[in-house]
Write a structure and sequence with these properties.
Blueprint lengths: L1 E5 L6 H12 L3 E3 H11 L2 H12 L5 H12 L8 E4 L5 H14 L5 E6 L2 H9 L1 E4 L5 E3 L18 E2 L6 H15 L1 H8 L3 E5 L4 H11 L5
Parallel strand pairs: 1-3, 1-4, 2-3, 4-8
Antiparallel strand pairs: 5-6, 5-7
Helix pairs in contact: 1-9, 2-3, 4-5, 6-7
Bound molecules: adenosine-5'-diphosphate and adenosine monophosphate.
The site of adenosine-5'-diphosphate has 21 residues, from α1, α6, β6 and α9.
Length: 216
């Protein structure tokens, strides 16, 4: 399976990605996670990306495209992958098409998770992530059984720097202007499936599996 997860910030892409990657045994590639890891490790890439991320803006295409191209060449992507948060512009999507064509493979499906703005802001602002294992929680919708501690690995939970109301609102605007045109882009390629992201987490996953044409 070669899949893309599309949807505004807070729609539930990262949450669903864990289930999808597990079910189809494919690597979950999140460009946001790659940038956050680079910031944590103090790399040049991290330094370049941080300003854009803190402002809720997109990191320039040329930086992102190079990372994804390298990542897709790694051995674990031979039988498939799940891209989360990439592509985010038409230019990125066109480049991905070329990269895949050169490798001689194509995308199977683009899963578009829909949710409206009110839900998105509340979800992103309430998001908490485990520092150790990266599991995503929500203070109300999907809390850790141990409060500020991860109930899977015991790590501390943290809030992303860009998960405040002002930055989330900016990120949603950026999504509408720069990323939403990809809905039409992939729809024209007959790759798009759309699911309702406002349902419960399990229900959204069921809808995704059905839309990919496989049983639960
Ligand atoms: P994205 O990767 O699209 O930005 P996440 O998967 O990180 O979104 O989800 C954003 C927040 O919303 C997280 O705190 C997550 O626990 C919560 N969440 C995700 N899916 C749902 C859902 N279907 N219902 C309620 N809350 C959800
Ligand atoms: P995410 O973790 O997907 O919410 O992404 C967090 C931030 O990382 C975004 O607001 C952007 O600043 C940056 N980012 C992640 N993926 C991309 C991408 N494909 N193109 C440009 N910027 C990106």
């Amino acid at each position: 399976m070669r899949l893309i997860l599309l949807g505004p910030p807070g729609a539930g892409k990262g949450t669903q990605a864990v289930f999808i990657a597990g079910k189809y045994n494919i690597p979950h590639i999140s460009t946001g996670d790659i940038f956050r890891d680079n910031i944590k490790q103090g790399t040049e890439l991290g330094k370049k990306a941080k300003d854009y991320m803190d402002k809720g803006l997109l990191v320039p295409d040329e930086l992102v495209v190079e990372i994804v191209e390298d990542r897709l060449k790694q051995g674990d992507c031979t039988n498939g992958f799940l891209l989360d948060g990439f592509p985010r512009t038409v230019m990125q999507a066109q480049t991905l098409d070329k990269v895949l064509k050169n490798i001689g493979v194509g995308l199977d499906k683009v899963i578009n998770i829909e949710a409206d703005k009110g839900v998105l802001v509340e979800r992103a602002v309430g998001r908490r992530i485990c520092k150790e294992c990266g599991t995503t929680f929500h203070i109300k919708n999907n809390p850790s059984a141990k409060g500020d501690i991860c109930d899977r690995c015991g790590g501390n939970l943290y809030q992303r720097d860009d998960d405040n109301e002002e930055t989330v609102t900016r990120r949603i605007e950026v999504y509408l202007n720069e990323t939403a045109p990809l809905i039409e882009y992939y729809s024209k390629q007959n790759k798009l499936v759309t699911v309702d992201g406002t349902e419960e987490i399990d229900k959204v996953f069921e809808e995704i599996v059905v839309s990919l044409g496989s049983g639960l």
